[in-house]
Amino acid sequence: MGLLYFLPETISTINIIPGYFLGHFPMILIIGLFLSLIVYLCYKLKRKKKIEKDGDFLLTIFFLFWLILTAFWTVANVLDYKRNQVYYHYDLPKKQIARVCNLLTTDDGLCRIFSFIKNIQAIVPPGAIVKIEAIDTEKTFLEYYIYPKYKYTENNLEADYLLYYPEKIIKKNK
Amino acid sequence: MIILKIFLYFISLLVPGYLTLWCIKTRRPLANLLNLALGYGLGSFFVTLLYFTAVFWMHMAASLSLWWLVCLIISLLSGFFIFFRHGIQATETKNIKEIKTTKRQKIIILIIIAFVVVNSVSLISSTLVRPVATFDSLSMWSGKAKTLYFNNKLDFNPDSQYFLGGGGHNNYPWQIPLMQLGLSLNFGGYNDLYTNFIFLAFFIALLILVHSFLFRITNFYKATILTFFLFSLPLVFYHGFNSYADLALSFYITGSLIYLFKWLEFKNRADYYLSISFFAAAFFVKDAALLYLPAFFAIFFYQILKKEIKKYECFRYFISSFCLLLPWIFFKFMWNLSYSNSGSGLNMIFPVKLILSFLGSLFVSYSWNIWIFIAILVFIIKFKKIINDKLAFSAWIFVGISIISLILAFSFAAVSQYAYDQTALSRTMMPLIISSFLAVGFSLKENKI
User: Fold this and answer.
1) Which of A25, B195, B241, B359 shows the greatest Cβ crowding within 10 Å of its Cβ?
2) A21-22 and A161-164 as β-strands: parallel, antiparallel, unpaired?
3) Close Cβ partners of B48 (under 8 Å, ≥ 6 residues apart)
4) Closest chain A residue by Cα to residue B227
5) How far apart are the C-alpha atoms of A109 and A125, rounded to whole Å?
6) Rg for chain B, CA atoms, rounded
7) pLDDT digit string, tens, across residues B350-371
8) Under the phi-then-psi rule, with left for phi > 0, alpha for psi from -120 to 50, and beta for the rest, what region is A51?
9) What is the rounded distance in angstroms from the CA atom of residue B313 to the CA atom of residue B231?
């Protein structure tokens, strides 16, 4: 991603933080190699003893290079903070919707589960046992958010209702 | 009122943890940030372990009164030991140099403070508005807490969808779900927003632990810069408000390592017991702790080889950790729960793709900023010093063996797909990356621990 195109919740994932790129080159690699070159030059040219003895000097160099991307990251966090302010007064269910929808902008399927849950609540009586037919991720999200109002099962015979997603079909089973 | 409830929850962990810590080591100032961090870690482990025993073994209802009863029992037991026997004198290190910084260093520290303040505001704001919404949280960590909260009791029927808490992996340990359950019980309703504070607390405790250790072995300036690097590692920071187990696992592995090093230096039993407790806790947080077991073995092996410790001390270390974890290990055994994440079976494909994935995480992603370069540079520059210093060498052994262990685990086990698609590799590496901060700290060491 580009340097100014970074908002933590829309791009970050819990598994990995995508890298910044300059053209096709990863910034981490560019900055890291440049840092290595500077340290090598300092080491070879005139500050060999200073570097070997004094870790403070070395850490100061590291710090300066560290700040390059940290500065962009901080700007992104500030922008993120500004965007967060809208949500302070939301109640918990609204915050849940906002987070899921903001978190995974590329996957509308997950954001749309909340409108499906609304439909379920309008049709299926509380306490009913449901079976969800959906792909793994969407199924997990649905199961989490409909519980404890509805219990879910894998057994067709046990289920009062069958729920199909993303088709958004609600079918009475008993 | 909400603040009071959350405060009470943390008190319910801190008081037993603090008293347990006091049991292990005495004559230390009470108002000490490090002790608070350690107390939080110990309290979280012992309270959830006993709660686990009550709910999972004795089939008691998961209630608020049980939560406070468990806290009371641990506090009373610890209080009893404190009263009737002298604790062990904790390692008091030699005089730490006064904080002396040059004008240039003061400017850098001011810059660091500014960055920390700005980013902390963002972190706290995220903690306050972002309920859990990531896959593993919903399918496991928070999902299990929610199920147990509303079911009140664990479901032991293997045909049920909620068998042993339900969710993606019913073989996963319970500390994180039980901590979330505890918060919801104290809060008086299931809440998957305020549980974020549990992870924020682990993040702060980790920073305190690492800064305190680095300050002891280096100086204030170095410790502050290195801790700032840790604070601003984007992936670790992001886990600071997300309900995943990796940050807590990193906290316990790091704590265990720090006190293991302290024990190796001073042979003080208090440090030994603390290390054992943290090591055991890591296994009650996440099975991935197993990946770091060979690295712990390697440190002991090296120290035995150097005749720094005796074999029985190594043996006692692992046996004691095992004994602490008996309720969980027996439970796994009894219900035939495996350690494997995705079934057995070996994946014997040569791991070129995996190595590329590994390198991608280290050198292309922004997960660790440029930390990997820094660690490599320090290792090269301070190599002579490292091989002459047994503790520094041990710390780097830990890093090296952990890398090998991770590569082997992801190469030859059936979990390699999680490395290829980057859904688990980077966060599984988190304890390794954080342990490399200790190794770098040792390489820049000025004082004894």
Assistant:
1) B195
2) unpaired
3) B174, B175, B178, B179, B182, B284
4) A63
5) 24
6) 21
7) 577 888 888 999 999 999 999 9
8) alpha
9) 34
Cα-Cα-Cα-Cα torsion A21, A25, A27, A33, nearest 10 degrees, comes to 180
What pLDDT, on the 0 to 100 scale, is given for residue A136?
83
What residues in chain A have per-residue pLDDT under 50? none
Distance in angstroms (rounded) separating the CA atoms of residues B150 and B2: 21
Preceding amide of A166 cis, omega within 30: yes
Cα–Cα dist B403/B398, whole Å: 9
pLDDT digits (tens, 9 = 90+) for B389-406: 999 999 999 999 999 999
Report the distance separating Cα B142 and Cα B135, nearest Å: 10
CA B122 vs. chain centroid, Å, equals 23
**Rounded Cα–Cα distance for residues A25 and A19 (Å):** 10
Structure ipTM: 0.92
In this structure, of A97-106, B50-59, B172-181, the range with the lowest mean pLDDT score is: A97-106
Subunit contact B161:A17, Cβ cutoff 8 A: no
B164, B154 Cβ separation under 8 angstroms? yes
> Exposure string (b/e) for B152-183, b if CB count within 10 Å is 16 or more?
eebbeeeebbbebbbbbbbebbbbbbbbbbbb
Please indicate whether, in this complex, the C-beta atoms of B131 and A99 are within 8 angstroms of each other.
Answer: yes
What confidence tier does B152 reach under pLDDT thresholds 50, 70, 90? confident
β pairing state of A21-22 and A25-26: antiparallel
B157 in Cβ contact with B220 (< 8 Å): no
Q: Which of A17, A27, A150 would you mutate first to test chain B, the one with the most B CBs within 10 A?
A: A17
Average pLDDT, chain B: 89
CB spacing of B366 vs A74 below 8 angstroms = no
Task: Please judge whether A63 and B108 are an interchain contact, meaning their C-beta atoms are less than 8 angstroms apart.
Answer: yes
State how far the Cα of A143 lies from the Cα of A164, in Å rounded to an integer: 12
